[in-house]
Write a structure and sequence with these properties.
One of its GO terms (molecular function) is DNA binding. Keywords: DNA-binding, Transcription, Transcription regulation. It holds the Pfam family HxlR. This is ORFD. InterPro entries: HTH_HxlR, SCP2_sterol-bd_dom_sf, WH-like_DNA-bd_sf, WH_DNA-bd_sf. It is a single chain. The protein has 222 residues and is α+β, with helices and mostly antiparallel strands. It has 2 domains: 11-88, Winged helix-like DNA-binding domain superfamily/Winged helix DNA-binding domain (Arc Repressor Mutant, subunit A, Orthogonal Bundle), CATH 1.10.10.10; 115-210, 2-Layer Sandwich (Nonspecific Lipid-transfer Protein, Chain A). Helix content is 38%, strand content 19%. It has a 5-stranded mixed β-sheet, with helices on one face. Strand 1 and strand 2 form a beta hairpin. It is globular.
Length: 222
């Protein structure tokens, strides 16, 4: 572990010593989706320097948050995955993502969306109570990023890539944030071309109801 400590006998302080360094929680976010090779993590976090990724992974391994595993097929490859202890962070990451989504606003010029970040965003904004009795498959396309969600009576399954037999395919861009934040209705999104749909267009309103970003808040003034 690094030498940075807070001098506090406190669970929060100890947690920050483990995952409070820059990039650590984003690594945990991506591993919460599934095991990754080093190159997969670099691709999903393109701005992280290679040496920083190596350091963070080593620190997380030493803290029993992450472990390495060798996959024998099709060729021997080392993947990183969350340990049982590390999986305890999944709900924390989801809740933190939901909290942070309140101040997302419009994407900054240099910001990107990745499959893992979008999958975790779907998990973070999902409202099981709004999905009771609903069964449908959704495919979400944001440029080259394609993810899917299958809803089954309040239960959610997410993954990367196309969904065979999807009830609704949604092709969109940054407007998806406004749609899920309730700033844009499904009818408005269809009418102004913010979304392009294939399948049952009536499901878009249901999708927006089940996946909701908390209303934005004004930034604190000095």
């Amino acid at each position: 572990m690094g030498s940075r400590t807070y001098g506090q006998f406190c669970g929060l302080a100890r947690a920050l010593e483990i995952v409070g360094e820059r990039w650590a929680l984003l690594i945990v976010r991506d591993l919460a989706v599934g095991p990754k090779r080093f190159t997969d993590l670099r691709q999903g976090l393109p701005k992280i320097p290679t040496n920083v990724l190596s350091t963070r992974l080593k620190e997380l391994e030493q803290s029993d948050v992450v472990r390495r595993r060798v996959l024998p097929r099709p060729a021997a490859a080392v993947v990183y995955e969350l340990t049982e202890y590390g999986r305890g962070l999944e709900d924390i990451v989801i809740r933190l993502g939901r909290w942070g989504a309140r101040t997302l606003g419009e994407p900054r010029q240099d910001e990107i969306v990745t499959p893992d970040s979008m999958i975790m965003a779907l998990r973070a904004t999902f409202r099981p109570e709004a999905a009771r009795g609903h069964r449908a498959g959704y495919e979400l396309r944001l440029g080259e990023v394609v993810v899917h969600a299958r809803v089954d009576d309040g239960e959610l399954e997410t993954g990367e890539g196309e969904l065979s037999g999807a009830d609704l395919v949604i092709e969109t861009g940054p407007a998806v944030r406004a749609l899920l934040a309730g700033e844009l209705t499904s009818d408005e999104a269809i009418a102004n071309g913010s979304v392009h749909l294939t399948g049952d267009s009536g499901l878009l309103a249901t999708f927006a109801e089940m996946f909701q970003i908390p209303r934005s808040v004004a930034p604190l003034s000095a």
